[in-house]
TrEMBL record:
Transmembrane segments: none annotated. The lineage of its organism: Bacteria, Pseudomonadati, Pseudomonadota, Alphaproteobacteria, Rhodobacterales. Residues 3-118 form the Gfo/Idh/MocA-like oxidoreductase N-terminal domain. SUPFAM superfamilies: Glyceraldehyde-3-phosphate dehydrogenase-like, C-terminal domain, NAD(P)-binding Rossmann-fold domains. This is Gfo/Idh/MocA family oxidoreductase. Residues 129-251 form the GFO/IDH/MocA-like oxidoreductase domain. One of its GO terms (molecular function) is nucleotide binding.
């Protein structure tokens, strides 16, 4: 399968490494408006076909799919362009800045009869996937409570400066993953309410968010995220879980330690991510999940099935992001279907 990468920035390098891990997939062309970034990725991964304009790349190259690794404001135009060329699409999170854009993008690829997957990779992290699998397998019975927590003081702004200047920050950038993981474990959401704060005075958006979710099943979740938490040991980029089920409990603690307690006893499992040769700590957890989700995309294309984080599925995660901002702004409880 031949792919074209659009966006050669901070995160794309992980995606390029990830594709190299997958047999039968090759990124044969790359695109970025920024010449220096295009050269850097092109030279590093030995890709000769380089474009500063995505429309030119898609007109000139024979591709099966595009991998969109640009920031959110460009996603809709690029996804619709790819759909017009009849290509399968994998697009980075956050899918769009509005539900209207996200729905239009999803419809464009569906109308073209192609596969649309959002690069929503946290649910493919080793520890989170082990927790999802355990709950889905009924290891703790029906879950009635989940706390999904991401609290850190790690400097994400140096690698991704737009995180300090965008109007929206932690929910759209990071909370989106934690909300997605919570959906994967606890099911769909019927209502939510959110409180947001900006603790770091040097940034524009919110760096702390606390979100209360009521699920269709009747269960409750708390999603709490912070980039203003000064603590040792620093746990970036780990999402921690506390899940209570009718017959047991599951805890995903710092250091990739998964504990499942039931009447039958206690299981403690090391769910550490593998460290690819191209990866570096502490990012290796995220980097492994990039390779895993891209492998999932390739398998879905080969087998003609819908990916777990398809456009359709991701609309429901994005509605939680939008809902959290609405709830915080209007100080009220939101139903995702309002959005
Ligand atoms: P970045 O700004 O470093 O890189 C984006 C690149 O896209 C830039 O080089 C820019 O010139 C290029 N670009 C923008 N619009 C373009 C267009 N229309 N045509 C061609 N090139 C264009 O951003 P980043 O930090 O690499 O983030 C990219 C995306 O990845 C974001 O949506 C971000 O949220 C996401 N991300 C995901 C994860 C994850 O774990 N899933 C982690 C980090 C970032
Ligand atoms: O952009 C974010 C993401 O998706 O994962 C971590 C991150 O890089 C910073 O919050």
């Amino acid at each position: 399968m031949k792919g074209g990468l659009i966006g050669c920035g901070f995160f794309a390098v992980n995606q390029m490494h990830g594709w190299q891990e997958i047999e039968g997939v090759e990124i044969v062309a790359i695109c970025d408006r920024d010449r220096a970034r295009l050269t850097e990725i092109g030279d590093k991964f030995d890709v000769d076909a380089r474009y500063s304009d995505a429309a030119e790349m898609l007109a000139a190259e024979k591709l099966d799919f595009v991998d969109i690794a640009t920031t959110v404001e460009s996603h809709r135009a690029l996804v619709e362009l790819a759909a017009r060329h009849g290509l399968h699409v994998i697009c980075q999170k956050p899918l769009a800045e509005t539900m209207e854009d996200a729905r239009a993008m999803n419809a464009a690829v569906a109308d073209a009869g192609r596969v649309f997957m959002v690069h929503e990779n946290f649910r493919w992290q080793s520890g989170l996937r082990a927790a999802i699998d355990a709950v889905r397998a009924g290891k703790i019975g029906e879950p009635f409570f989940c706390r999904a927590s991401f609290r850190s003081g790690y400097d994400v702004y140096s690698g991704q400066p737009y995180l300090a200047t965008d109007e929206r920050f932690i929910i759209q950038d990071l909370g989106i993953h934690v909300l997605d993981v919570t959906r994967a474990i606890m099911g769909e959401v019927s209502t939510l309410s959110a409180s947001i704060q900006r603790v770091n005075p040097k940034i524009r958006g919110e760096d702390v968010a606390t979100i209360l979710l009521k699920h269709d099943s009747g269960a409750t979740s708390v999603v709490d995220c912070s980039y203003a938490t000064r603590q040792q040991p620093e746990t970036f980029p780990e999402t921690l879980l506390e899940i209570d089920g009718e017959t047991g409990t599951l805890r995903l603690d710092a250091g990739y330690r998964l504990t499942i307690q039931t009447a039958g006893g206690e299981d403690v499992i090391d769910v550490s991510p593998r460290l690819y040769p191209w990866a570096e700590k502490p990012w290796h957890n995220i980097q492994e999940s990039v390779a895993t989700i891209q492998r999932h995309f390739a398998e879905c294309l080969r087998q003609g099935r819908s990916p777990e984080t398809s456009g359709d599925d991701n609309l429901r995660t994005l509605a939680l992001v939008e809902g959290a901002y609405f709830s915080a702004a209007e100080a009220r409880t939101i139903k995702p279907e309002e959005l």
